[in-house]
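User: quick one, sequence for these tokens?
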């Protein structure tokens, strides 16, 4: 509220309830604004005060591994050799056809699928893709189910289009694998979609092929029971980030009405470039209408199209990747510290997050950690109190230097 409005209120010319600067819905969103981003901002302030090397910021999933070297040369070559009208101009809302064709061919090679450019829509990251597909399928009052713990923005994305997010309670006894019985009990006649995220943020858990088959069976049975299709939305920014020789099943092969939201933010370390894609297979119900509607949603949501330069750049880097061994080494280094100090956690097999159990309320614990200049995100931000998320996509030195802070917490709670 600006100074002029405040003066008018004090003078009796306006009453506060008559001032509508921001919508009620936006006020609600601001009151529950991202804990992760708030932590990240706290980290920057603390780094300025104490020195970056003395702050142990595990709050944000910002990749610490650099993009592949090839990307740099590809971008330079594109800028030097492609006509600006094409390089920076508008294209079909779904993206450059040749880029979509290359992505389809790459997926077909990796997963033995049968996609063409018609199945691919370029998006402004996976977040943009989620908003596009939710805009495409949701009517007011529809429900979207997800498993707790979950990426908190799912709730906002769903509510953007009049939907309601319904969370399956966290399976804390089963290492956060999907609880199939709870899923069955959560799906209702209002359910329009299930969002799953594997490898998972915030737990780092990777769903097995058996998990996926069980989920698919529930969705098939429930779709028949309630008389309409339930879509499976696979949020896949971490697909390539898996360790211990695990494989991530490709979901379109298990359930016909699967829509994939993919991002290059983690696989190529390009979070700020906002580039990804949707896969809508031919088998999806009302495919022709769905694909046209999703392309239109890209336009009317204000994305218009995914960034042109990055579309062309990633098309030449589809077989590239970052060195995930760095993240795996970070995981091993971090778990060694936590094991030594007596903390309990779920061992992550993917992504770059670890979900650690807290000895008391997760928000209180996170505040105590902050006093040691250790930034951890409370599990309640992911719909799962009693845990904190540790993002280990940091330099190895941050993990090494954080030992003393973790040790003080372990001593405080008598964990050792």
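Assistant:
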């Amino acid at each position: 509220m600006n100074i002029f409005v405040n003066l008018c209120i004090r003078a009796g010319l306006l009453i506060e309830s008559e001032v509508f600067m921001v919508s009620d819905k936006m006020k609600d969103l601001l009151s529950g604004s991202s804990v992760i981003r708030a932590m990240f901002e706290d980290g920057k302030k603390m780094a300025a005060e104490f020195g970056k090397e003395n702050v142990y910021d595990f709050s944000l999933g910002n990749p610490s591994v650099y993009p592949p070297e090839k990307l740099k040369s590809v971008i330079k070559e594109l800028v030097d050799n492609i006509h600006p009208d094409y390089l920076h101009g508008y294209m079909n809302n779904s993206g450059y056809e040749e880029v979509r064709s290359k992505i389809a061919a790459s997926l077909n090679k990796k997963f033995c699928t049968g996609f063409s450019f018609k199945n691919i829509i370029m998006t402004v990251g996976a977040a943009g893709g989620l908003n596009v597909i939710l805009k495409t399928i949701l009517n007011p009052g529809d429900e979207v189910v997800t498993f707790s713990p979950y990426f908190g923005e799912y709730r906002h994305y769903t509510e953007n289009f009049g939907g309601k997010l319904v969370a399956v309670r966290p399976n804390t006894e089963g290492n956060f694998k999907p609880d199939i019985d709870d899923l069955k009990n959560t799906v209702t006649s209002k359910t329009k979609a299930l969002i799953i995220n594997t490898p998972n943020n915030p737990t780092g858990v990777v769903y097995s092929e058996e998990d996926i088959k069980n989920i698919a069976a529930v969705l098939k049975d429930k779709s028949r029971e309630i008389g309409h299709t339930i879509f499976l939305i696979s949020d896949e920014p971490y697909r390539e980030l898996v360790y211990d020789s695990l494989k991530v099943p490709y979901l379109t092969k298990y359930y016909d009405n699967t829509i994939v939201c993919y991002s290059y933010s983690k696989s190529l370390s390009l979070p700020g470039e906002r580039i990804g894609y949707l896969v809508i297979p031919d088998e999806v119900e009302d495919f022709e209408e769905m694909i046209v509607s999703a392309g239109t949603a890209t336009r009317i949501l204000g994305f218009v199209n995914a960034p042109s330069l990055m579309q062309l750049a990633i098309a030449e880097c589809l077989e590239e990747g970052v060195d995930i061994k760095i993240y795996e080494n970070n995981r091993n280094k971090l778990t060694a510290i936590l094991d030594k100090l007596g903390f309990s956690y779920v061992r992550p097999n993917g992504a770059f997050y670890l979900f650690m159990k807290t000895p008391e309320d997760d928000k209180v614990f996170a505040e105590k950690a902050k006093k040691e200049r250790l930034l951890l995100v409370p599990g309640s931000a992911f719909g799962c109190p009693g845990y904190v998320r540790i993002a280990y996509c940091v330099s190895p030195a941050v993990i090494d230097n954080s030992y003393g802070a973790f040790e003080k917490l372990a001593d405080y709670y008598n964990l050792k």
